[in-house]
Design a protein that fits this description.
4-stranded antiparallel beta sheet, MetI-like fold, elongated, Immunoglobulin-like, 3-stranded antiparallel beta sheet, alpha+beta, 15 helices, 3 domains
Amino acid sequence: MEASRPTPRSPALAALLSIVVPGLGQVYAGQWRRGVSLILGLSAQAALFYGVGLSWLSVCMAPLWPWVVWDAYCAARGKKVPATGPVVLVLLLNLVAASNVTQVHVPKLAPEQRGVMRRIVGGLASPDFLKRTAETREAVGKYVVPGPGALSSLESEPAKAHKPRITITPVRAEKGDNLTVWGRGFVPNESGTLSLLGANEIDLGGFHTDKNGRFAATIVNPRDIPGAYFVHARQVVPGKGWELSETLKDAGPRMLETIYLALLGTAWSLVFALPLSFFGARNLMSGARPLKLIYGLIRALFTALRSVEVLIFAVIAVAAVGIGPFAGVLALAIHGVGALGKLYSEAIESIEHGPIEAIRSTGANEVQVVMYGVVPQVVPQFIAFTLYRWDINVRMATVIGLVGGGGIGYQLIQYMNLLQWRQAATAIWLIAGVVMLMDYASAVIREKIV
């Protein structure tokens, strides 16, 4: 008995149908999937352009029409036409639409904005990693504004060897009177500052020492309320050495906190994702209908957890447990269950089935099949995926800190809010250095394991 031959299709009719409705000719020619894709896809694309207010781009799709007609004609004759050109055209039109929707343009910066950009770039170019060592010498002297309740005289303090000391003459002065501050024991040939101590410190000017470390400076008494007042002389002389800056000393522990935050988040993800991944592997759950239902639920859970951005989890966690690293751990752990679960399940689905069949042939139950046929094959991939996830979590942890999830990101956003760009650059470079180091280390470990 002869095999039935497909009913011949008229190329002319197929082309005519695609002229009326693009894609209908392909359906007539028997290429249902291609035809339906063209009918729905072109209509959806035109609707998308109209929806974003760029209906003129729909006119630019006109060159696709002759191609669709020719494709339908060839389909009826049993031939295929390459779709590279139409795909590239649609992609270019969508890029144009994206540029218009996102308002891409060459920015015109105002003078204030240019100044801010210069400070940002300058901060990145000169982060606050190190500072010069400095020698600080300071001393305090006092005088009296006469009046009711004021001291009649001041007791002189004994001089200490090699210690800075200042005296003020005269020791009693009215508002506006000149006072002379005499200093000794300071660093020779260097400058310093004078200030009047109090709730609101007042700058009284500066001084410069001679070769013996002495100076004499004239100040004006700004106070009229009777009582004793204290003048502070301070001299800060840069040294020849270097030391870690206060910014780096603060950012270092925060960076370690970020690494541990990411580690704990990864560990918690592992605890939940590892057992669930076996229920999310199609090749292990393809038997009875209840197994298929469990498989579908687990994969849906993985997809849901992955689809929600980790920052959203972080905001929810901050609202639940408060600002701090614990909120960051929760956010990374919840998001990581979905990410690691998917990777683990796909690793299980890609295993060789030979060892599994061999173990089953011995009469082993399903638990034994998993333990001796599946686990040995997936352990190297599981380790590699876990290290890779930790690497990702370190980068995510820095962003989570921006919304209160702890770590160095929390410190970074404070620097940026205070416009402290050199300090912010220190945190940024520290993050980049740690991430690059962990990228290299995890790549080496994965290479050795896999």
